[in-house]
Queue: 4 jobs
Job 1
Amino acid sequence: MLRITERRLGASLCACAAALALAGCSSGGSSNGGGFKTTAGGLVATAAVTEDGIGLSANPETTSAKIDVKSDTVEMAFTGGGLDGRKILFEMSDDSDGVVEGDAVAASLESGEDAGNLTALFEEDKAAFAGYVSIEKGDWDDPEEGDTVQLYALYGSNPAHKAHSLPGANDELSYEGRLVGVATDGPASAGSVIGDVAITANFGDGSVEGTIGNLKYEDDSDFGGGDIAFAAEMSNDKASYAGDTVTMGGASATGSVEGGFYGAEAAETAGAIFAERDDNRLLGAYRADKQ
């Protein structure tokens, strides 16, 4: 079974140009005495085999998920989109350095779904999680035209943490963390990536700016699009943010970002991003800690 989350794909990639729809919804998360409620969200993309190869394009679904991590399993409960109302159970295959990986148990899959995988940034003592789920249709050891992988980049709160609050009204906070996702580099390669995230959030003017760098595939090669930067604006209650100002390799790109704040006095932030410029594309989810 080929996991798009584990290796680069040698097949030719079609240049699918698709508009991004990135949306989040309330997770029903925890509130503090001041009424602060965490948010959850996510975006969806499709990797599809065509006569030209494998292409990655955005999907206009709205989705979010809640996470429940036990000793050797992870359950994701979905709201919205094609997985609305479903709970998918993953058996952990790896849990190291804050990255959890798992394989969907067969009973969680529906007819036509051949495999499912999870890669998540999750630690028990952290207030937020971020990661992505892939649902495969077809034999991805030997993909054929018509085979697809649905990719869900997700973020939200860790249900074990109930106390979430915001900082001072004019505070400016800096965050550092990681991103996991899927990227493409033109018509020859695609696969999972991991990178570094740096974010500045100004709770005075409501601005959020971030950079994603050091993006590498699992064979340690660099993502060809270079560093990605974004700018976003906070919601009225300052609990979340969203924006569509994105650059890739220092040049203007198409994309969107969305995220929220978690923990005591916004100790963490997590979110999802899609960015594309020419044949370079990135779909990912990130989690970062206040510095």
Note: Residues 1-35 have pLDDT under 50 and may be disordered.
Job 2
Amino acid sequence: MGRLPKKGVDYFPHDVFASLTPTLFTIQQEFGNDGYAFWFKLLEFIGMQKGLYADFSNEKDWRYFLSIARVDREVGEKVMTSLAELDAIDRELWQKHRVAWSDNFAERLASLYCRRGTPLPTKPEFEETVQDGETQQPKPADAKKTRKKKPTEKEEDDKVKYADYVSMTETEYKSLVERIGEPAAKKCVEVLDNYKGSTGKTYKNDYRAILNWVVDKVQKEHPQLFKKDFAPEGDGGNPFDDV
């Protein structure tokens, strides 16, 4: 019997300097250790969900999470509001639908989903349904991906296709080559191209996606391709970084 598909993830990175990053430092200043614990318990809760987001529009689910976080309703609401204002979670999703989603948290798990061979969950999209003149509770739109702004014509003209599913500006590619060397750059393009082609995943910027997780994956698997003086930055799309 084959292995059952996982519902969410079993773990996620926790940087040793997390408490010093602007977003989490601010939360701690406002709410003390309760704010620190709340944030990581929220990420744990999100990580257990199939879609990598927490839907607290249901009162029962919200009360359950508050019991996990060990804070009262007033503190919980204030922390979530601050996280949304700091863009640690998506502001619109929280304010309109009481849904907690973090772009950076999801992106940081991209390499894990790549190894699984399954698509990385995308930001949930909601639709308002109207029936008999009444607006119903919004539900996540099925099989839809986040609406993204269309790039300008100039941005499209500047992009060069380096593979079927990977495009960058010449400046971005040259910067990548200078940073890691051309053999490693070509391998990174190949890895990202295979991942996007097999999963249907799209990125706002392929160059940033490569820096975010592909470089780390390729370096671990093909270290001989990299320049001898290459030193990884190790940011990995930190979900605690200020925006």
Note: The radius of gyration is 20 Å.
Job 3
Amino acid sequence: MSQETEWRKAETNIRPDAGGNQNKKEGTIVLLVLLLIVLGFVAGGAGMLYNAYLHTQRCSITTEGVIIDYERELMSGSHKRGWRPVVEYRVGGEVLTVTHSVTESPKPFKTGTQVTVAYNPEDPTDFYIRGHHLKTQCKIGIMLILVGLCFTIGIVFSTLSGKMEEEKRKRLQEKVFPLIGGFVVLSGFILLAGWKLTLAGAIFFGFWMKYDKSRKKKQKTDENKQIEK
């Protein structure tokens, strides 16, 4: 056997291992990036919830207030302008007029609306409107955590499915990934729109799907009749 033949045989034996190691390295990098994304979602959501908790502990005294005006400001991270409510409320014998730090669009309240204000006894200008500001913050925080958990489920599933047969893995993916996506969308609707609007939307979507299925079936039947003629 010539030396050139031996070299070619050695290259043939080495190449599959090198390719396998490269694939493993790329898979590890992708997994690490996905884990960082998951940690970002979960940490962001947990941070918002913790910040809301600290705010409730800090602003422990409540009083009645009224929305007297709005100030126009640019929304954070956007070129769109929003509104900051100007709230008037009484602390002891003093009437305070304070503009809230959160910019929203559209206006969350009508001018003249009575609201319950929770404020910080050490700094009465530090306040939030109960049942509104922190409620929205908590919803967004929970949503971020849910998205992070769904990413985690997807990563675990992808890792485990890599050891399955191709056909079995595809069937499982067709069932699992739509369920994860549906769970995220449904959770988002419930948190942001409330369960009543979500239920109404689900009923409407169900009727629409039934109508669309019936329409397509009728269309297919008509096409078959025309072919038979």
Note: The chain has two domains: 23-46+138-224, 58-129.
Job 4
Amino acid sequence: MVLFNAATKELTAKIVYYGPGLCGKTTNLQHVYDSLPQDGRGKMLSLATQTDRTLFFDFLPIELGTIRGMKTRIQLYTVPGQVFYDATRKLVLRGADAVVFVADSQAPALESNKESFQNLIENLREQGSELEKMPHVLQWNKRDTPNALPVEVLNREINRFGCPTFTACAMRGEGVRETLTGVARLVLKHLSEKYGGGVEATPIMPPLPVPTAPAEAATESKPLEVEEISGNELLDEIEELPVTEAGGLPATASASRGTHTSTVEVPIVLDRSLFSGDGPVEIRLKLYIK
């Protein structure tokens, strides 16, 4: 759901990267994050658990363009791919304006791709949304692997609604920019049709540098440059966040407008041993700052 900020003349859209475990969602966002100037990106966060090292949550605003004189910004999120984090995936999907489904091109991953895509459809449907009517793209990642399936097979087995697709090798940064640009254009088109007015687009992100190292070296993974925090440290982390308006955007010149209330909602998964019962526990923290 698009958020409007009349004070700063900005509207904010939310894009979620979805897919099975280890398909390359986190790698995609890492390359996007690294390609942006430091003064134009938000802080990337990771919530670590005992059983999962996947980037659980991140927030990344990106300048996109203007609609009817309002700046358009994008928040990028990724979800954990493991099946036992389904409650978390539902929480992160809430209010999404577009989805990037990242599929692992390797033949053994075909069934997990199909299961994850069906899970995406069902989770959106539970929230009253239909993927067919929502802007979304598919990325065929890991095209450099020797057992990668033909694109025609992946398209036939997974792409049920005929959405745009992109080939990629996210580990090398190939196809990452094209995927983000493609889904961003769909969001712009959707917003312009819904709210009217022309679109004055700006570059989504600068071109990624061409790798100079040999292909063998380029495939080596590097540590994810994020800050990992535990559940107990989350409150301290939130206290350091700047006061924001709706949509999590900095409240510029807020002092001149007087006292206001802002809400920061952060999904978090704690160790289930801290609670009774077998299911995951959803906790919503709200911090009111005056």
Note: The chain has two domains: 3-228, 229-274.
